[in-house]
Design brief:
By secondary structure, this protein is of the alpha+beta class. Helices cover 48% and strands 17% of the residues. The protein is globular.
């Protein structure tokens, strides 16, 4: 009888411990939301007559969507992805690093995977980074304007959809 009680008690402890260990729930980008983000960015670029590359990465830095607008220069391909990955990895706009380097912090150029040029922004939900957008093809300010349109589109979605 004592052996049964010990086994039952051990199972009870194990069950209580497992109950406390749950998988976390988190927001993540999906294709439908990514399309909304890219469409808003493309609309802003088109409105201004700018040919851009628009890249969106998920929270793991994996490219989920890449759009090359007609006549966008091919050199902007890697730059748009790099800006998105910079914003994701460091949880801040890529311009933050451009400003620091322009202020003399040249040692930042040694950071792996850093694209310190304006136009990359983290995408947020519930205060967490769920991905990032990077835009390239115009001036730094134009790239940022287009990327911000994508960020605004995400923020405008009902909370249940983001």
């Amino acid at each position: 009888m004592r052996k049964i009680n010990i086994v039952a008690f051990s199972l009870l402890i194990a069950a209580a411990t497992l109950g406390a260990q749950e998988l976390s729930t988190k927001k993540s980008l999906n294709l439908a939301v990514t399309k909304v983000i890219v469409a808003a960015a493309e609309k802003e670029a088109t409105k201004n007559g700018w040919a851009m590359f628009i890249a969106v990465v998920d929270d793991g830095g994996v490219l989920t969507t890449l759009e090359r607008m007609d006549d966008a220069q091919i050199g902007s391909l890697d730059v748009s992805i790099g800006k998105a990955q910079t914003a994701l990895k460091f949880k801040r706009p890529s311009k933050a690093f451009e400003d620091l380097i322009n202020g003399g912090r040249n040692s930042l150029l040694g950071l792996p995977g850093l694209t310190p040029v304006e136009g990359g922004f983290p995408l947020m939900a519930d205060g967490k980074v769920i991905g990032a957008i990077g835009v390239s093809g115009g001036s730094s300010q134009q790239d940022a304007q287009v990327a911000q349109a994508g960020v605004a589109a995400l923020e405008a979605l009902p909370k249940a959809k983001r």
